[in-house]
Amino acid sequence: MLRVGLTGGIACGKTTVARLLERQGAHVAYADLIAKEMIQPGGAAYHGVVERFGPEILDPSGEINRMQLAAKAFGTPSRVEELNHIIHPAVIARQNEWMAEVASKDPHGIAVVEAALIYEAGAEKDFDKIVVVTCRPEQKAERFANRTLMSLDKARIEAEQRSRAQISDEDKASRADYVIDNSGPESATQQQVDRIWQELKKLA
């Protein structure tokens, strides 16, 4: 089985590409959904996050409010590192467990993990190939605003804060096996995905 990491900067279109690959027949897991699972009550990272960032990040039900957590973490690089130090090991362990499950069911399949912080977490070694999605810088704020229903100005500030906690798009692209430019229409992205998919199938 071929293990593929799919990454890129904030709001560049990783999820769009993941869904296009899924339509082609790839098995796809989303690291953000895994992370949500890990910080649920009873999850592997729940207690560590609450202990580090305080009970004020909790909703009345005892669940972690992700917006409150982001507000406390993303304003300071050192706090982002602390959060990642708690969450990343649990997420990576679950990703690898999932890929092993896929391999046992589909030995010649392609397993794709969509994750924003593959390089930052040192997880690139877990994959056979890495695909990086890019877009123009001004598109990030626009897409993030549309996704979160924030004003464009607020989305620009938020996107810049989160981007500072990541390796630059240029650095990621230079280290990738494949780069998809998602600056244009989805049809253009689809063409790039089709080409890469054919290569991945040969490798699998």
Distance between the termini: 6 Å
The major sheet is characterized as: 5 strands, parallel
| Overall outline | globular
CATH superfamily: P-loop containing nucleotide triphosphate hydrolases
Number of strands: 5
Poorly predicted spans: none
* Number of separate helices: 9
SSE layout:
Elements lengths: L1 E7 L5 H11 L2 E4 H8 L7 H8 L12 H8 L3 H29 L4 E5 L14 E6 L2 H12 L3 H13 L4 H7 L2 E4 L4 H18 L1
Parallel strand pairs: 1-3, 1-4, 2-3, 4-5
Structure description:
- By secondary structure, the protein is an alpha/beta fold.
- The chain has one domain (2-203): P-loop containing nucleotide triphosphate hydrolases (Rossmann fold, 3-Layer(aba) Sandwich).
- The protein is built from 9 helices and 5 strands.
- The chain has helices spanning 14-24, 31-38, 46-53, 66-73, 77-105, 137-148, 152-164, 169-175, 186-203; strands at residues 2-8, 27-30, 110-114, 129-134, 178-181.
- It has a 5-stranded parallel sheet with strand order 2-3-1-4-5, with helices on both faces.
- The longest helix has 29 residues, at 77-105.
- The chain starts with a strand and ends with a helix.
- The model has no long low-confidence stretch (mean pLDDT 92).
Name the descriptors.
Rossmann fold; 5-stranded parallel beta sheet; 204 residues; single chain; alpha/beta
In short:
With 204 residues, this protein is α/β, with parallel strands linked by helices. The chain is 56% helix and 13% strand.
